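> @MW can you paste both from yesterday?
MW: sure, first one:
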Amino acid sequence: MLEKEEFNGKALIFPLMEIEFLKTGVNLKEADALVSTSVYALEKLKLELQNYKKPIFAVGQRCNKLLQEVGATNTFIYSNVKRLLNGIKYHYRNEQPHVFYLRGDEISYDLKADLLKQGFNCEEQIVYKQKRNIQQKELDKILSGKNLEGIALFSEKSVDSLIKGAASRNLDKIFFCFSKKIENRLRSALDKDVRCRTTQDPLISNMVDIIVKEYSHY
């Protein structure tokens, strides 16, 4: 998306984690509703979700795009988990549906616990895992580049992988954070005074906007 904007710079992509889909069977017919905050969980079940009719509650533009592609029509998309919880609670007033929570093996927020508190019969379905496969020399080579000024982070797990895999001398950059939780994790793990630019809502378009704005004066 940055390439489509008037961005006076160049963006590099360096994966800090690798997604591995698990060989697991999930019978979506047993669920009254699906919940997911990860596009990777939906990607794993892409075939099963073709023209899916039951309600799907998800977070973010990427989830929304994938669900549109597979023809799922009964979808409810939110900008963050808090709004998702409020939305599903409102949708199922005085009901106790059987909810499948589709996720990866590592999570930074216990969504199941909140769903259980709201009276939902929630069953977790772990459909992928996150593998840290960092090539430290290559990462440090990129981070030490004299023209590299900013790092964009889209998950708390990426923060952990970056801190563990990179030399601290190469982390004196501006960090663009996809959420306040990512910013807080970064400040806690690195430095409370680290320079952060954080989106108000976790949307890819918002992330692009703050990066473009930061470097518009160049």
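MW: second:
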Amino acid sequence: MKALIDTNILLDMILARQPFFEDAEKIFRLVREERIEGCISVQSLKDIFFLCKKLDKEQDPFDVIQKLSYIFQVIDVSGADSIMALTSDVGDYEDGLLAFSASRNGIKAIITRDKKDFFESDLIVIHPKEIDKYLDSNGSKLERCSSDKNGIRFK
């Protein structure tokens, strides 16, 4: 099963944000171990590039985007996703873009710290702290997409 990794989890890892870093690191590890088929939105890459340029002068934003692209499958956002996000009950436009592009790409779950933001979507919403419980209750290892076997550590 594919899982979309929300931008907040990616930023927790990249910027080593406390107290969330350990949970984000675990999600990255599970993708590298092929227990989660980790996907990210091209929209998330855009946001991360902008924030890395603005907040973290020590990391090359091009390098960060390249590493993320090796670890995760990058999904697109379409014009139809944009219209759906605008006209749906999802309260936040950016979250709507993620939810509709995930659904269109056959993704059934999202891993996020902001579960309430996806309450109105059809996605299974998983907090990083709940991931072990979810994997255990699933009864089998989650499939994965391509990743860098050497892993990644941003900080």
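> thanks! The first strand starts at residue 2 and ends at 5.
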